[in-house]
């Protein structure tokens, strides 16, 4: 394998709090180990359109506490075509970039796997997504901050919900995964979480109402994972208005609020550890792996595994939520 001299670094897909801490960690660890670093702007799009600059340690000063990504990000359709990837490869070589570190979610790591396979490039991925839906890692960068944001928002909604004695459906992000909804519900003391992982097995709404979930309460909060499988908060509210008109229902969709804000200590530490580990992985000759954390240890997860889309939810947590909401 040719010796790596220059590492290209990009963020791709939806941004996540902690991406800047990861950019800082990769850049500084790489320079510490004698590599050159090039920052690629706007994800894979910047690789195609040649938006690449030399990164020194100063480029990543004073960013550890900022949300978003200083490298900007994008979802790039062109990179899904062989022509787009060829162009990206040509640009990459013109900058003498020998290896890439890609910070992003499921779609970004799928793109990395494709690219690495076609052009035999060493690529290491960092799991950067609020959704926590990558297999092989207990946490993704940005997930803890998003969870805290959800908790903060639900605490505020609870005040008005209880004053008006209303039933609130609060929709949270997660794409097709229910991690944010489930753990957000536990952290905020919500009555239930309606999540795609169990939506096909049980009618969660009917179960909730039949169990008399408001017997001892004057208001209720239900977190709903955005997903066509759950029906979303709007869909569920519509159903309640028709089937259970005795309830005064309201909907809040938290939306992109969940993607912003200063990262929590946990996300900053995770991103810093993972960023340093990405450089170690390249030094060890690893390629096409995502850095994960499993039981607080850094692990290398092959791209194929990481993007399998079947990261299981913890059924004990589902049970805990059920027991705590009586
Ligand atoms: O993957 C992160 C995420 O925030 C998902 O939770 C959400 O479904 C999606 O991105 C939203 O994407 P966009 O910002 O492109 O609308």
Detailed description of the structure:
This protein starts with 5 loop residues before the first strand and ends with a helix. The chain is built from twelve helices and eleven strands. The protein is α/β, with parallel strands linked by helices. Strand 10 and strand 11 (297-302) form a beta hairpin. The protein folds into two domains: 6-142 and 263-308, Rossmann fold, CATH 3.40.50; 145-259, 3-Layer(aba) Sandwich (Rossmann fold), CATH 3.40.50.460. 6-O-phosphono-beta-D-fructofuranose is lined by residues 14, 105, 129-131, 173-175, 226, 259.
Largest sheet: 7 strands, mixed
Order of helices and strands: EHEHEHEHEHEHEHHEHEHEEHH
Q: Report the total helices.
A: 12
- Structure summary, number of beta strands: 11
Radius of gyration based on Cα positions: 21 Å
- Determine the strand fraction and express it as a percent band: 15-25%
**How do the strands line up in the largest sheet?**
3-2-1-4-5-10-11
CATH-assigned fold name of the largest domain: Rossmann fold
Q: Structural class, please?
A: alpha/beta
Which small molecules are bound? 6-O-phosphono-beta-D-fructofuranose
Share of helical residues: 40-55%
CATH class of the largest domain: Alpha Beta
Number of domains: 2
> What sort of overall outline do the alpha carbons produce when their principal axes are compared?
elongated
Average pLDDT works out at 95
């Amino acid at each position: 394998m040719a010796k790596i001299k220059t590492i290209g670094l990009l963020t791709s897909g939806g941004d996540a709090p902690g991406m800047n801490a990861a950019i800082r960690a990769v850049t500084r660890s790489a320079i510490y180990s004698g590599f050159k670093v090039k920052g690629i702007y706007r994800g894979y799009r910047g690789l195609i359109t040649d938006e690449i600059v030399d990164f020194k340690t100063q480029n990543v000063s004073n960013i550890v506490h900022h949300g978003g990504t200083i490298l900007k990000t994008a979802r790039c359709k062109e990179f899904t075509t062989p022509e787009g990837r060829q162009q990206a490869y040509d640009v990459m070589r013109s900058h003498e970039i020998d290896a890439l570190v890609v910070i992003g979610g499921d779609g970004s790591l799928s793109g990395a796997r494709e690219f690495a396979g076609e052009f035999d490039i060493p690529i290491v991925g960092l799991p950067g997504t609020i959704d926590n839906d990558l297999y092989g890692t207990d946490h993704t960068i940005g997930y803890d901050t998003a969870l805290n944001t959800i908790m903060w928002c639900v605490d505020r909604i609870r005040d008005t919900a209880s004053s008006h004695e209303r039933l609130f459906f609060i929709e949270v992000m997660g794409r097709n995964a229910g991690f944010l909804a489930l753990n957000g519900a536990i952290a905020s003391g919500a009555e239930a979480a309606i999540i795609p992982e169990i939506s096909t097995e049980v009618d969660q709404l009917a179960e909730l109402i039949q169990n008399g979930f408001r017997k001892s309460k004057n208001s209720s909060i239900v977190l709903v994972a955005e997903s066509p499988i759950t029906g979303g908060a709007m869909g569920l509210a519509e159903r309640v208005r028709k089937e259970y008109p005795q309830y005064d229902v309201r909907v809040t969709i938290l939306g992109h609020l969940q993607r912003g804000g200063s990262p929590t200590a946990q996300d900053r530490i995770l991103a810093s550890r993972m960023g340093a580990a990405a450089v170690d992985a390249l030094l060890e000759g690893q390629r096409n792996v995502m850095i994960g954390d499993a039981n607080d240890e850094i692990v290398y997860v092959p791209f194929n595994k990481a993007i399998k889309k079947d990261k299981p939810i913890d059924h004990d947590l589902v049970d805990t939520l059920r027991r705590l909401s009586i």
